[in-house]
Design brief:
The complex is a heterodimer of chains A (about 220) and B (about 220).
Chain A lengths: L3 E2 L3 H4 L8 E4 L9 H10 L4 E4 L10 H6 L3 E6 L8 H8 L4 E4 L2 H13 L4 E3 L13 E4 L2 E6 L4 E7 L2 E3 L4 E2 L8 H7 E8 L1 E3 L18 E4 L5
Parallel strand pairs in A: 1-14, 2-3, 2-9, 3-4, 4-5, 9-12, 10-13, 12-14
Antiparallel strand pairs in A: 6-8, 7-8, 10-11
Helix pairs in contact in A: 5-6
Chain B lengths: L4 E3 L5 H11 L5 E4 L18 E4 L3 E7 L17 E9 L2 H9 L5 E4 L3 E3 L4 E2 L15 H7 L2 E5 L11 E2 L12 E5 L3 E6 L2 E8 L3 H7 L4 E3 L1
Parallel strand pairs in B: 1-13, 2-3, 2-6, 6-9, 7-10, 9-11, 13-14
Antiparallel strand pairs in B: 3-4, 4-5, 7-8, 11-12, 12-13
The chains are: A alpha/beta (about 220), B alpha/beta (about 220).
């Protein structure tokens, strides 16, 4: 089915309920769906589990969701940064749960969820405190750790351009987690600068096929 | 391995970066970690034809962007705006880390808190009480490339060796480091042990007395 074209960011995220697990795209500010996160802030959903590479920067986007204690748990690789003060405060107060995952394992766990893989053995993290309590196996003389998929109720991501069938293209390093997150959620909500008609994107250049996209919304439109 | 050499003065950070750059094989795919390793790119020559990987999703990364070239959608793993070189490519995170974990990168250069004589690496977490842990791509980088090299100061502020018998900081990766570049010496770690390729501002004997790991003179 073709994706729903939402009338606004608020309309796009209106289905996100309290207690949902939400994959949020972006690496730093590149690819971060800022307007959708702001709309999530306004929609009132709380007790969220958020999956992102980071745990918010400065006073915008995910950082504000954390500041307002709307996030009960964050699954990420790199929470602590020079400007992660809202996360730092919530964490030190014991008011947010952190699951720390090596970045490549985070990506592969999301990919696995989208690809229907029940788990995978990875060498990353073997012999470290992040593998404590996890099943391990030695394969061809090398140590591996069993990691499980991270699936979600929603993904909110940013792409450059979509067609009306939900096919997506991204821009430069803003692509980062978008393509895998789109596959791993029950509902993928995508903000783009422009929605073009079906056929206007070169099929050879489509990065995320429309089958993975449920809702589109146009924001801005500068690039 | 090259024959043992020595210089009277310790290496500066630029000299360390220059030596690392000179050791990178022509045509290699390379990931340079945040901090000192980033400086290596300033000493790579165009004749070397090295392709830089940044784990947030790009091969063919160019120099740091300035002025009108700054683009918020084009950043490196340190979230610094960079540029793209002709022939660059973009890819998503799972592909980027498959490149790394799958052994497709030739060299990864990282900073470190400690390295053990067996090549174990600690560089992600001090383990200090109250410290908020953050790992990023450190564990993937440590074990992913064909060769993992470290650039670090050899001694702590209180004079203790950061090349140790066994790590006291939390592990990033086991048995992964094959070279260590420091201001005082360059070490090669392989099945035969820890070999000192060169010393700088210190004699081999003085170094041997300060490092709690058996050292072989190249």
């Amino acid at each position: 089915m073709a994706p729903r074209i939402a009338t606004s960011a608020a309309d796009a995220v209106s289905g996100i309920q309290t207690g949902a697990t939400v994959l949020i795209g972006g690496f730093g500010n590149a690819g971060q769906p800022m307007e959708l996160i702001d709309a999530l802030m306004d929609c009132g959903a709380t007790d969220l589990t958020v999956v992102n590479n980071n745990a918010g920067q400065a006073d915008a986007g995910l950082a504000l969701l954390i500041k307002e204690r709307r996030v009960k748990k964050v699954i990420c690789s790199f929470p602590r940064q020079s400007d992660s003060w809202h996360f730092d405060e919530a964490y030190r107060a014991g008011e947010i749960e952190l699951e720390l995952v090596p970045q490549g394992n985070l990506a592969e766990r999301i990919r696995a969820a989208g690809a229907g893989i029940g788990g995978f053995f990875t060498p990353t993290g073997y012999g470290t405190m992040l593998a404590e309590g996890k099943e391990t196996r030695v394969i061809d003389g090398r140590g591996y750790v069993l990691e499980t998929p991270i699936s979600a109720d929603f993904a909110i991501i940013k792409a450059l351009r979509a067609d009306t069938l939900g096919n997506l293209v991204y821009r430069k390093t803003a692509r980062n987690f978008g393509p895998i997150m789109a596959t791993a959620a029950k509902k993928s909500i995508v903000q783009v600068s422009e929605i073009v008609s079906a056929g206007a994107l070169d099929p050879e250049n489509v990065v995320t096929p429309g089958i993975f996209v449920d809702t589109l919304v146009t924001i801005g439109g500068t690039k | 391995m090259s024959e043992y050499t020595s210089t009277d003065a310790a290496l500066t950070r630029d000299e360390m970066a220059k030596l690392v750059a000179a050791d990178i094989p022509a045509g290699a795919f390379v990931n340079l970690g945040i901090g000192q390793p980033t400086n290596v790119s300033n000493f790579l020559t165009s004749e070397q034809g090295v392709t830089l990987h940044t784990e947030n999703g790009m091969l063919g990364m160019g120099p740091v962007a300035t002025g009108d070239d700054i683009d918020e959608d084009l950043i490196n793993a340190g979230k610094i705006p960079v540029t793209e070189l002709p022939g660059a490519s973009y890819f998503h995170h799972a592909d980027s880390f498959a490149m790394m974990r799958g052994g497709h990168l030739d060299v990864c250069v990282l900073g470190a808190f400690q390295v053990s004589g067996g090549g174990d690496l600690a560089n992600w977490h001090t383990g200090a009480p109250g410290a908020i842990p953050a790992v990023g791509g450190a564990m993937d980088l440590a074990i992913g490339a064909k060769q993992t090299w470290v650039m670090m100061g050899l001694f702590t502020k209180t004079g203790e060796s950061k090349l140790v018998e066994a790590l006291t900081y939390p592990v990033t990766g086991l048995g992964c480091v094959s070279r260590i570049y420091t201001e005082s010496a360059i070490f090669v770690i392989d099945a035969s042990g820890v070999t000192v390729r060169s010393t700088h501002g210190i004699t081999f004997e003085e170094l041997d007395a300060k490092i709690p790991v058996d050292l072989i003179k190249a």
